[in-house]
Amino acid sequence: MTRDFLQWRPHPWHGLEIGPEPPHIVNAYIEITPFDVMKYEVDKATGYLRVDRPQRTSSQPPALYGFIPRTYCARRVGALAPGADRGDGDPLDICVISERPITKSEILLGARVVGGLQLIDRGEADDKIVAILVGDYVWGAVSEMRDLPPVIIERLEHYFSTYKMVPGEKSPIRIASVYGAEHAHRVIEAAVADYDEEFG
Predict the structure, then answer these.
(1) What is the pLDDT of residue 103?
(2) How far is CA 168 from CA 60, 87, 144, 146, 159, in A?
(3) Which domains does the chain have, with CATH numbers?
(4) What whole-number percentage of the chain has pLDDT above 90?
(5) CA-based angle 190:132:200, to the nearest 5?
(6) CA distance 194 to 175
(7) Which of 117, 149, 157, 172 could covalently link to 128 via disulfide, CB atoms 3.0 to 4.6 Å apart?
(8) What is the DSSP letter of 154?
């Protein structure tokens, strides 16, 4: 029996490992579930989950939503997104598809990367990596975005194109492209390099 353990809870962004086989299999720290109508976000200073804002519309995230630890979206991530001036200065977002409902947030899970959405938000790259829960019995054979039913991708695109929408105003978000696993791996590698440069 191992007796190795962390005496204190690590910061979910800086203290957790990126995953066992990055950029192919990564850890995802989940902030929001498909059952949440509030936008939660990890507080960057403390690591606690805080309420960012109530969702203005009735749209709910179609997948588990969080970030990949020890990633940062800065100049390298921005360089991979045509039309972006820079990355958004946050950890790299990830959506994880699971056949079984997961209703709790603030959990860590293994995720196999299959692609992503390239979002541009007010001139900043705000990529959403898409992954499958490791060991999922229904979606486990999916290796590329094109293997997913088109309706799942449509729901992801709809959610992210509307989740910051304010009635009467033009949405600040543009979905530039949907990409496969190979480009998603490059985005993750860029976000890891941006993190290493920023935080050492």
Answers:
(1) 95
(2) 21, 27, 37, 34, 18
(3) 25-199 (3.90.80.10)
(4) 78
(5) 25
(6) 22
(7) 117
(8) H
Q: Are 94 and 18 in contact (CB under 8 A)?
A: no
pLDDT value of residue 1:
56
pLDDT of residue 53 exceeding 90: no
Q: In sequence order, what DSSP letters do the residues of 96-145 get, joined into one string?
A: EE-SS-----SEEEEEEEEEEEEEEETTEE--EEEEEETT-TTTTT--SG
Do residues 134 and 94 touch, judged by C-beta distance below 8 A?
Answer: no
Decide if 63 contacts 109 (C-beta within 8 A): no
> Could you tell me how far CA 75 lies from the centroid of its own chain?
18
For residue 6, with 0-12 CB atoms within 10 Å meaning exposed, 13-18 middle and 19 or more buried, which class applies?
exposed
Average pLDDT over residues 54-64: 81
User: Alpha-carbon distance 22 to 37, whole Å?
Assistant: 31
For the record, the structure tokens of 84 come out as 């972006």
Position 82: which residue type?
P
8 A C-beta contact, residue 11 and residue 40: no
Residues 48-76: what's their mean pLDDT? 89
- What local confidence, expressed as pLDDT, does residue 181 receive? 98
Q: Per-residue pLDDT tens for 84-133?
A: 989 999 999 999 999 999 999 999 999 999 999 999 999 999 999 999 99
List the beta bridge partners of residue 41. 50
Question: Cα–Cα–Cα angle for 29, 34, 39, nearest 5°?
Answer: 70
